[in-house]
Amino acid sequence: MTILICRTDKLGDFITALPTMYVLKHHDPKNRIIACVAPLNKALAESCDFIDEVIVDSGESIWDFASRLRALNIDASITLFSNTRISFAQFLARIPKRIAPATKIAQIFYTHRVKQRRSEVKMAEFEYNLELTKTLFSNINFGYEKPLLAFEDAKEIYNVFCINNDIEKKVIAFHVGFGGSSDANWNLDEYEELIHTVLTENKYQVVLTFGPDEKELYEEMQTRFMYYNVVFYFSQESIRYFAKLISNFNLFVSTSTGTYHIASLVGTPTMTFFADTLFASSKRWKSIGDEKIQSNFMIPSEKIAKEELFKEIKKILFSF
User: Fold this and answer.
1) Lateral strand order in the sheet of 171-175
2) Nearest 5°: CA angle at 156, between 152 and 159?
3) Do the beta carbons of residue 274 and residue 285 sit within 8 Å?
4) How far apart are CA 176 and CA 82, in angstroms?
5) Helix 84-92 to helix 62-70 angle, to the nearest 10 degrees?
6) Does 181 share its domain with 266?
7) Together in a domain, 163 and 307
8) Last residue of a domain, one of 103, 135, 167
9) Has residue 140 been placed in a domain?
C-alpha cells in the first residue's frame, strides 16, 4: 500500500509526525511511505530510513500540486494537520482513502474524518497522530525506536566541532531563542544567571546555539559572555547537520520549540520550559524521545511560584 502522510507545518510539529510514519512502515514493510512536508523539513525527512519518498509542498498552484500527488498513485493518505489547500489537493488527486481529524471546514474533502478533540489534550500531539493510523490498521503497534533517528557520521561531526572550538569537556547547550508554539521562556537575564550556574561549577563546556534568523540574539549573548569560556554556535548549516551535532551533547536546555524536538529525536537529554497552560503544556507537546531523559517544567505566571521554580532549576543545573 502506498500511504501519504501530510504534515506541512513547522519543524517541531513535523517531528511529532515521525512516529506515525515509522509504525506504518513497520506494520508492513511493503507499505510505501511518502511524507508531504514543508520545504524546511525536507532534509530531515530524507534522513529517515522508514520514509520511502519525500514530497514538498512548495506553494505552487493547487492544480499543479494535485497533479504531482496524482502521479504518485497513492492508495491512502493521513493528514495530521489539515488546511483547505492540503485537503482540496488530495481531493483533486483522487486519493481513494483520505483520513484526517474532524476539524475545520477542510474536513469536507476527506473520506474518513476522525473525531479527536485535540483541544482537550487527553494525550500528546504525537499520540493523537498515531491514533489516526488505526483507521487504516486497527491492530497496528504504536511502538517505535528511541531515539528514532541516528546518524553514522554524527560522532565525526562532533569531533570536528570540538577541535574547531577547543572543547575538551562534555557539553551542556542552551538555546535561548523563542519560537514555534512556545508561550513561555526565561528572559535573557534569567538565562544568563542559569548559564553562570553551569560555568561556576566548571564541569561542562557551555555551548549557546542560535538559529539562522537569530543574529541579533547571537550578538547580544556574545556581549554578555565576552570574557567567559562559552562557545557560540550560529547555525548556517542544514538542520540535518545541527541534529548530528546536538546528538552528542549531554544536555540541551531550551523552551518548547523546534530545536527541543530535534534534540529529543536524536536522543539528547533535554531540560525544557513550557507555559503553564494546557494548550502549550508539556502534556500536549512532550517530545517523541525517551521520557526518562526529558525534564519538563511549566513556568508559572505567578511571580513567587516562578521565582521558586527558577531556584529549583539552578540547583538542578549546579548538581548536574
Assistant:
1) 230-234, 205-210, 171-175, 251-255, 270-275, 294-299
2) 145
3) yes
4) 30
5) 50
6) yes
7) yes
8) 135
9) no
Give the largest CA-CA distance in the chain: 62
Residues 246 and 294 in one domain: yes
Q: What is the pLDDT along the chain (320 residues), one digit of tens a residue?
A: 999 999 999 999 999 999 999 999 999 999 999 999 999 999 999 999 999 999 999 999 999 999 999 999 999 999 999 999 999 999 999 999 999 999 888 899 999 999 998 989 999 999 999 999 999 999 999 999 999 999 999 999 999 999 999 999 999 999 998 754 455 799 999 999 999 999 999 999 999 999 999 999 999 999 999 999 999 999 999 999 999 999 999 999 999 999 999 999 999 999 999 999 998 899 999 999 999 999 999 999 899 999 999 999 999 999 99
CA distance 48 to 300: 37
Residue 92 lies in a domain: yes
Structural domain span for residue 222: 154-319
